[in-house]
Write a structure and sequence with these properties.
It is a single chain. The protein has 197 residues and is mostly helical. The longest helix has 31 residues. It has seven helices and no strands. Helix 2 runs antiparallel to helix 3 and helix 3 runs parallel beside helix 6.
Length: 197
């Protein structure tokens, strides 16, 4: 039996999401190319914004039902959920510690992303018709793997958020009494964390 494709919906929230995604890509690319002495912080923030742009586009495809018109794009954004938290943490570390550099140990932070890319690869390889069939199932009722995926995102996000707040608190103690630059930097980091949480 041929299933009827749900109608696409492009409303005000979708429009705002699309503008946000475009801004994330444009600013992210600009930061990757910016060279003002804060190179590593800019590159990390640029990578974070591009990652958030990818997540926004993927979510937008599902929200508007456009994913039924382009099923081969389904779930391509999903593993990027596991890149955003470490990028945020590294960005905060790079602001607090000007000597911050990536080491081989930092690769471990990318493990959840790699694991989920591996998990989704069989789905990515499916023919379009099978993907459409799975998409219909996903929209009808949440599956156990989708629930586990969502729980994994929450656990990882909260872990990095807590680690970021602890990093900020430790830095605040070490810079007592703080100078003007330190105060502005701490306020910026605190505001980012409060906005995200």
């Amino acid at each position: 039996m041929q299933q009827t494709l749900p109608p696409m919906e492009f409303d005000v929230p979708a429009f705002i999401g699309a503008i946000g995604a475009v801004q994330a890509f444009v600013i992210g690319i600009a930061l990757l190319n910016r060279n003002d002495g804060r190179g590593i912080s800019n590159r990390i923030l640029g990578s974070l914004l591009i990652t958030l742009g990818i997540l926004s586009v993927g979510s937008l495809f599902f929200y508007t039902r456009f994913i039924f018109e382009a099923p081969n794009a389904a779930r391509l954004h999903s593993p990027f959920n596991f890149l955003a938290p470490p990028l945020l943490y590294w960005y905060i570390r790079s602001l607090i510690d000007p000597k911050f550099r990536f080491t081989q140990a930092h690769i471990l932070h990318l493990l959840p992303f790699v694991v989920w890319v591996g998990y989704f690869t069989p789905f990515f390889m499916l023919p379009e018709e099978e993907k459409l069939s799975i998409l219909f199932e996903w929209f009808e009722q949440p599956t156990a793997d989708r629930q586990f995926f969502g729980l994994s995102i929450i656990v990882q996000f909260l872990s990095y958020l807590i680690a970021s707040f602890l990093l900020l608190a430790r830095h605040k103690k070490q810079t007592d009494p703080p100078n003007k630059t330190s105060i502005a930097q701490l306020a910026w980091i605190r505001n980012i964390l409060m906005l995200i949480s």
